[in-house]
Amino acid sequence: MSKVAITRAEWRQVCQRSDLVAESGVCALLGDRQIALFFLPQQEPQLYAIDNWDPIAQAGVIGRGLVAEIDGELTVASPLYKQHYRLSDGQCLEEADIQLAVYPVAFEGDDVLIRLDQ
Amino acid sequence: MVKQKIVVIGNGMVGHHFLEQLANRPEREMFDIVVFCAEPRPAYDRVHLSEYFSGRTADDLAMGKIAQYREWGYDLRLNDAAINIDRAAKSVTAASGANETYDHLILATGSYPFVPPIPGHEHEKCFVYRTLEDLDKIQAAAKNGQVGVVVGGGLLGLEAANALKKLGLEAHVVEFAPGLMSVQLDEGGSKLLREKIEELGVTVHTSTATELIEEVAGGRLRMQFKGEAELATDLIVFSAGIRPEDSLAKSAGIELGERGGIVVDNHCRTSDPNIFAIGECALYDNRIFGLVAPGYSMARTVVSLLCGEAAEFNGADMSTKLKLLGVEVGSIGDAHGRAEDSAAITFVDEQSGVYKRMITDRAGKKLRGAVLVGDTSDYDTLLQYHLNDMDLPDHPEQLILPALDGAAPALGADALPDTATICSCHNVSKGDIVGAVQGGCCSLGDVKGATKASTGCGGCSALLKNVVDAELAALGMEVNTDLCPHFPYTRQEIFHMVQVEEIKTFDELLHKHGSGKGCEICKPTAASIFASLWNEHIHKKPHVGLQDTNDTFMANMQKNGTYSVVPRIAGGEITPDKLIVLGQVAKKYDLYTKITGGQRIDLFGARLEELPEIWRELTDAGFETGHAYGKSLRTVKSCVGSTWCRFGVQDSVGMALAVENRYKGLRSPHKIKMAVSGCTRECAEAQSKDIGVIATENGWNLYVCGNGGMRPRHADLFATDLDDVTLIRYIDRILMFYVRTADKLQRTSVWLENLEGGLEYLREVVIEDKLGISEELERQMGNVVGTYQCEWKTAINDPEMLKRFRQFVNTDVKDEKIVFVEERKQRRPATREEIVEIAEPA
């Protein structure tokens, strides 16, 4: 895949619905950006896109974390050191000054689309 | 500073306790300490002496270790008996000729067995039951014999009879008095004890006086009793009571009691103010205290006095609770009701073989004594009433009658005074326990760790739990045992609900019994319970999102997001061909290779997308998953055993293979490690494992609930000399009971420590089937064993499962952020500094 410099807001098709794993996460590569995609069919919204890079563990592993509800909010628990990142806005619950980027994501038919603003 | 010098004569349990207590005090530095010990080894546990015949070795029984004494800075002289005390010169002379002066002399010479002067008692097949050397001699004599007789039907005599039985002899007990254990039991209790012991195959002769012992043809012994009766036997063990070992004190002119014993005051001081006597050699208030707890209490008194603190020994309660040949026996205070104005309440159940008797004052308000045979569950409560002189409840008979609603009226912890002794083994009072809870201990395990309470005989565990729970409640710190915010139940309760309602999915469980959406605590716990009960593949659709990352990818995630791979090498046995395959796979994928502590090989640095390919090659070569990623059976370590080793007595590798192949794949509350050793040298270190098996001449000894790692715990001996079938049956039951009842992420060691009733209760459940669930436990294990599949083998043949192993769902490129560097000819993850250097070379 060619590296495209993404400089303007755009929706991009990332993968198919069948590439996702219900109740869990997978990872996609857009440019040099790793993005974790979580598909939670019973929740609203059903889709979440969040940076795959765990800045505390210094490894790209967020997509392999467990989805956990903490105090009513959906989070993903990092598989390495178990910090929780809120799926809605990427905020780390344990470290106030750490927040992961999140991205708008949606289905269009069976396509999974994502929008990168910068 | 000029140090004072302490000389200790005797290194039995009490002498050891004195030294141990002193070692843990800062004042220790004020003293130079010399210890004379007549025996060839330092102190050992004489209370459990008969376990020497059921697999415990001299090392297991050891209390004082030579290295420990050295560390404490004590000058220990083994095999060197003190033979003279010169009080004027304040010096002690030993058999070796060594002479040591003292400022303080401690006599801890203990006692010797009383042998009645029956003609023939010095025959070489007549023994006493006191030291490990005595036991060795008895064992040697029992080798070619059929019959063994114990003279003496007291507590020690019955222990000795048990030992003879374990040696395979037909055991007899000959007692001069009309009943067994006549010191501790009244007539009714004694009678029932006799019946129970005879049921176990021990012949009891009471009111029987031996008049003559003589050798007859064939080298056997003939015992002639008063009257006509006689008995032929191969050996005789005398256990007719103890006498204080006071000869050294006597020749030094120290005051003795009329019938022996070194007279001491309430400071344990003898008639010579520089000389103390502690333990069974000391006579206080005209009594000898033949139990270990009062001896310990004397030892602590003297340690305190030497450290400049006030302390007194004011006698001790001689109440006792024990199991003799499997029969529960308890005796409290004035068991015979000898005091004036005593009244008794007696409960006899001939059906189940239970005898209970309470001795109270005339008004029925104070408990003076009690006798319990066949069921000692009321002992702790009764003892507290007695020791604390508490008023009995209005209907005191309730304390020993079987409760109609099933629950015996437990003594409320609130009613106990702070001074009440909860654990007599370690002298822990209620006040100590309350202090520990207030100091931050908030679980039974924490309190045990902090106070040592209930870590001796364990008899006080139920009472301890009462006190801990009451204090936690009083502090408003009600212990929350909920699994997590989504399930207001313990893991055990959830296990039960899943089992009874046959719940198969997390959604169903959450819908029926939980709330919210689940978290990283309840999801893997539920997945583990489903696997233990129904054993479906962990990647089956509804279970996918429940697994921890390691279970999800069936490998162990390392710090840089790559994985390590550990194929199963059962028992640590591997063919050269398979070893070569591991080398080839490691080389092909450039995996860092290391031998694990569990006798297998760990391959590090596999990228997510490489895992299926690696496993295709491994399964093709016959490897199976090693479950290193799961809360499940890890390894069964083994030594090479009798096949090769000249010391081995059983095929430990064969047994390790059988065990590992049986339990591989079992999902449990936490990981499980096992080991099998082929002889008592224990090269497989089985006593540090959850399940440890050690070969004996006659079969296998089973150890349970040991642990290495962060919080080491020596495993407990659970059962001895088991055949293969029984061994497996017991392990089945223990593991399933653990799987059912443990808390989340609770290793077997902590589980056992928190199990009410402890090891004894576990034995009752597993061996005696007290709960009537053994068959069910075995059936459940049978189901897990029968539905085993290699998770990796299934996964690599399932395209849907394999989709998970893509690094990126939209491209095949590799994760460029994973960077390795080389070290010692293998690669490892680059450090942060190294990554910066690689990205921006200087």
Overall pLDDT of chain B: 90
| Quaternary structure state of the chains depicted | heterodimer
Biggest interface and residues each? A-B, 38 and 39 residues
The portion of residues forming beta strands of chain A comes to over 45%
How far do the termini of chain B sit from each other?
A: 63 Å
Report the biggest beta sheet of chain B as strand number plus sense, adding barrel if it closes.
5 strands, parallel
Output the strand order for the largest sheet of chain A: 2-3-4-10
| Average pLDDT number of chain A | 88
Query: What share of the residues of chain B does DSSP label as strand, in percent?
Result: 15-25%
User: In CATH terms, what is the fold-level topology of chain A?
Assistant: Rieske Iron-sulfur Protein
Q: Which CATH architecture of the domain at 4-112 and 244-306 in chain B?
A: 3-Layer(bba) Sandwich
For the sheet with most strands of chain A, the description reads: 4 strands, antiparallel
Query: Could you give the distance between the termini of chain A?
Result: 20 Å
| Structural category of chain B | alpha/beta
Secondary-structure element pattern of chain A, one letter each: EEEEEEEEEEEE
Rounded radius of gyration of chain A (Å): 14 Å
The CATH C-level name of chain A is Mainly Beta
**Relevant CATH superfamily of chain A:** Rieske [2Fe-2S] iron-sulphur domain
Overall geometry of chain A: globular
Domain tally of chain A: 1
How helical, in percent, are the residues of chain B? 25-40%
